[in-house]
Amino acid sequence: MQIGWKGALLGGAIGAALTALFFGVMPIASKTQAPTLARTADGKPDLNGVWQALNTANWDLQDHAARIGPLVALGAAFSVPAGSGVVEGNEIPYLPEAAEKKKENAAKWLTSDPEIKCYLPGVPRATYMPYPFQIFQTRENVLIAYEFAGAVRTIYVDSKQESPSDTWMGWSVGHWEGDTLVVDVTSFNDQTWFDRAGNFHSDALHVVERYTPTGKDAIEYEATIEDPKVFSKPWKIRMPLYRRLEKNAQVQEYSCVEFTEELLYGSLRKQPSK
């Protein structure tokens, strides 16, 4: 049985339509499907849980190659791992004088980095240090407890209160934009760094964070950093945060102050320690 040219054209058109439907429409529909998110009683994304960043940003926010560590005797045990940067455009726009200060910080990192002395890590550094942190979310406030140095901060949702003083962790006020928690952080002191590479700020630091769930076990974290005393323009970092899925996932006690007593106060001894 022969099929005429009209039948062939009709069959080809049907085949093309089916192909377009399968390869064209279906992927588009899947791309627009919103992720399934756990939600609190008031309908907000549920951020409660233990989270952690998995990157090398605490070593250096920008692209960096692996290199020998500051203590040669430790060999590979304290070497610097290679890592892709988390800075948008991989550039931090330092003012000329501040750029020199950053180089000085990097050269003196082992004695000058506040992390070495177990000082509170500040924002945003607390987020991407190699330790977990736990989010406790209520309708009024969001509390974040970090493992390093027992640091904590409260995000006051839709609050008009102002900070009574400058602090290490700043003053955090949040609001929701759809499924994104936006946090405006001000009132910092100038004592924290952004990483072990010597990136720093002044007391004019202003950070705007965005926590956007991309699924029930992942958050897209973004922080816009502004400091007119140190940088020529605002700049941004971005990274995923992952939920710790162990059944017993928890933030452990890491009170590192006692580990720094000799470093900070050993010189005050009447007799040298043995």
Notes on the protein architecture:
This protein has 274 residues and is an alpha+beta fold. It folds into two domains: 1-33; 49-264, no CATH class. The chain has five helices and nine strands, in the order αβαααββββββββα. The chain has helices spanning 5-31, 96-107, 109-112, 125-128, 261-265; strands at residues 49-53, 133-137, 141-146, 152-157, 171-177, 180-186, 206-215, 218-226, 235-243. A nine-stranded mixed β-barrel has the order 1-2-3-4-5-6-7-8-9. The longest helix has 27 residues, at 5-31. The protein is globular, with a radius of gyration of 25 Å. The N and C termini lie far apart (102 Å). The model is unreliable at 5-10, 17-23 and 25-30 (pLDDT under 50).
Sum this structure up briefly.
By secondary structure, the protein is an alpha+beta fold.
Describe the secondary structure blueprint for this structure.
Blueprint: H1 5-31, E1 49-53, H2 96-107, H3 109-112, H4 125-128, E2 133-137, E3 141-146, E4 152-157, E5 171-177, E6 180-186, E7 206-215, E8 218-226, E9 235-243, H5 261-265
Parallel strand pairs: 4-5
Antiparallel strand pairs: 1-2, 1-9, 2-3, 3-4, 5-6, 6-7, 7-8, 8-9
Q: Helicity, in percent?
A: 10-25%
Largest sheet data: 9 strands, mixed, barrel
* Structural domain tally: 2
Instruction: List low-pLDDT spans.
Output: 5-10, 17-23, 25-30
Q: From N to C, what is the helix and strand string?
A: HEHHHEEEEEEEEH
Total strand count, please?
9
**Taking strands numbered 1, 2, ... along the chain, how are they ordered across the largest sheet?**
1-2-3-4-5-6-7-8-9
Shape: globular
Mean pLDDT: 88
